[in-house]
């Protein structure tokens, strides 16, 4: 389990990759441009001072969006905290805006989690009391809620108390694990096991035995009714089945339907047999399901979705979910779950409510929209700065460049100072927008792009012209040039 967690690695989101390429590309490009200006200016007989070149580099590099990115990420984490979700990284919040597939563990996520043993179904020739004794003994080393409920049901059937349970001396216990999916006890030459249907079936076959037809029928009936069947065996002899009852969390069907409305496909992944999984999936309104899934199967399922280009969210609460949580792009652990699950996740839901994913996705989309809007504004700013610094650098020696001085700035010195001051002022002024975020409304990518270009693209062109001109006037009035 530890090896699988350590081998898991989260991928960069498409938006994260694109923004990184944009920022690095623009920084490298403008650095090359500024360095190249020196020999070009020398050839043209223009002398460029080092402070002017530094001013040009500072103004042209994407400093605005670079300075605002931390504020955007912190704001997203703060919004999630208001929904009782603790995000362990800003990247996790951003990634949630791209999620299109969510894998949900069944027990504790879709269902209430504490499945209860409600019935013992003995095989032919086995009494209910004999089955109850074997089920109880084989569950003593099972610390899960299911295992404890089997012990409680057995005590009711047998009419005994806890202190009356006395395994023989020299007994060896086999604790329940997510890998074996069974528990048991070796005592007096007997090997008694209790576990999932398929795990016990493999165990019985290894002992040259088989599952009786009546028990196979009982297992199918339990699964069709949405319950979870467990089998109890003594060596190769099948003693019977145990019915575990699952209860869906209140309103889970409506909440999963809301995920579908925002374009997210839900997949339930569980260790239960396929028929039980199908019944629960149908009752909860799940789009798809994966049954009889061991921890490695959950991990591989996420990797497959990611390989196909999907952004995957995983919601889980158990230790067996830890590898999948460590691999998922957005990993939400239930606060009521295990410590291993919480450590592997990058978000923790304090309310243990899987429907929170809708809030997480909406906040993630808002962050993406905010970041896109401010990136558009930042790039548009650079265009305006061209009309400030370039004429200031060359206008004295090349008067024909005066046509680019559309702002009619007072002098080269005042123009450069105004551009630097505007660059320093605009970032703090945009921090409130970064923290508040651009309002998210469900709409197509084309509509979002059109709105961003109109508001933040055109605005990013107009605002610097006005701001730099006003600062230029102020610089002249205060004799700061």
Class from helix and strand fractions: alpha/beta
Poorly predicted parts: none
Strand content: 5-15%
Shape: rod-shaped
Tally of strands = 13
Strands in their spatial order, largest beta sheet = 1-13-12-11-2-9-10
| Percentage of residues in helical conformation | 55-70%
Question: What would you say this structure looks like, in words?
Answer:
There is one protein chain. The chain is of the alpha/beta class and 481 residues long. Helix content is 56%, strand content 14%. It contains 18 helices and 13 strands. The protein has helices spanning 2-7, 14-43, 50-60, 63-82, 90-96, 106-110, 128-138, 145-158, 197-206, 213-224, 252-261, 274-284, 295-307, 322-327, 339-344, 356-394, 412-436, 445-477; strands at 85-87, 101-105, 116-122, 172-174, 182-187, 190-196, 228-234, 237-245, 265-269, 288-290, 312-316, 330-334, 347-349. A 7-stranded mixed beta sheet has the order 1-13-12-11-2-9-10, with helices on both faces. Strands 3-8-7-6-5-4 form a 6-stranded antiparallel beta sheet, sandwiched between helices. Strand 4 and strand 5 form a beta hairpin. The longest helix is centred in the last third of the chain and has 39 residues, at 356-394. The radius of gyration is 32 Å and the shape is rod-shaped.
């Amino acid at each position: 389990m530890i090896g699988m967690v350590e081998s898991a690695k989260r991928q960069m989101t498409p938006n994260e990759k694109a923004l990184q390429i944009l920022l690095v590309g623009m920084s490298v490009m403008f650095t090359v441009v500024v360095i190249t200006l020196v020999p070009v200016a020398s050839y043209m007989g223009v002398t460029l001072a080092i402070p002017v070149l530094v001013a040009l580099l500072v103004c042209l590099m994407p400093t605005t969006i670079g300075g605002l990115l931390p504020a955007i990420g912190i704001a997203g984490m703060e919004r999630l905290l208001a929904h009782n979700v603790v995000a362990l990284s800003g990247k996790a919040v951003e990634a949630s805006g791209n999620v299109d597939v969510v894998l949900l563990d069944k027990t504790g996520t879709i269902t209430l989690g504490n499945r209860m043993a409600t019935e013992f179904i003995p095989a032919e020739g086995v009494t209910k009391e004999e089955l109850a004794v074997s089920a109880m003994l084989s569950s003593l080393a099972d610390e899960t809620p299911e295992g404890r409920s089997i012990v409680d049901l057995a005590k009711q059937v047998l009419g005994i108390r806890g202190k009356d349970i006395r395994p023989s001396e020299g007994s060896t216990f086999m604790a329940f694990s997510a890998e074996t999916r069974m528990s048991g006890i070796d005592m007096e030459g007997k090997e008694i096991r209790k576990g999932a249907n398929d795990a016990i079936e493999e165990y019985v076959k290894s002992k040259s035995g088989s599952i009786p037809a009546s028990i196979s029928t009982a297992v199918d009936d339990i699964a069709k009714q949405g319950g979870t069947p467990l089998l109890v065996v003594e060596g190769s002899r099948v003693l019977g089945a145990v019915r575990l009852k699952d209860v869906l969390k209140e309103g889970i069907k409506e909440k999963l339907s809301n995920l579908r409305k925002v374009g997210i496909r839900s997949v339930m992944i569980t260790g239960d047999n396929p028929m039980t999984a199908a019944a629960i999936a149908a009752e909860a309104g799940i789009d798809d399901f994966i049954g009889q899934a061991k921890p490695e199967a959950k991990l591989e399922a996420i990797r497959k979705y990611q390989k196909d280009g999907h952004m995957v969210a995983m919601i889980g609460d158990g230790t067996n979910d830890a590898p999948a949580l460590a691999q998922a792009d957005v990993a939400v652990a239930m606060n009521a779950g295990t410590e291993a699950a919480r450590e592997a996740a990058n978000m923790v839901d304090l309310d243990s409510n899987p429907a929170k994913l809708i809030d997480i996705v909406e906040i993630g989309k808002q962050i993406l929209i905010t970041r896109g809007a401010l990136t558009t504004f930042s790039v548009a700013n650079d265009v305006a700065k061209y009309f400030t610094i370039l004429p200031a650098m060359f206008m004295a020696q090349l008067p024909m460049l005066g046509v680019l001085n559309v702002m009619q700035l007072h002098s080269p010195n005042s123009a450069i100072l105004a551009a630097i001051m505007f660059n320093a002022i605009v970032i703090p002024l945009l921090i409130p927008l970064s923290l508040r975020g651009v309002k998210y409304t469900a709409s197509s990518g084309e509509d979002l792009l059109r709105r961003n270009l109109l508001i933040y693209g055109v605005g990013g062109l107009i605002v610097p012209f006005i701001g730099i001109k006003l600062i230029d006037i102020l610089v002249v009035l205060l004799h700061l040039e």
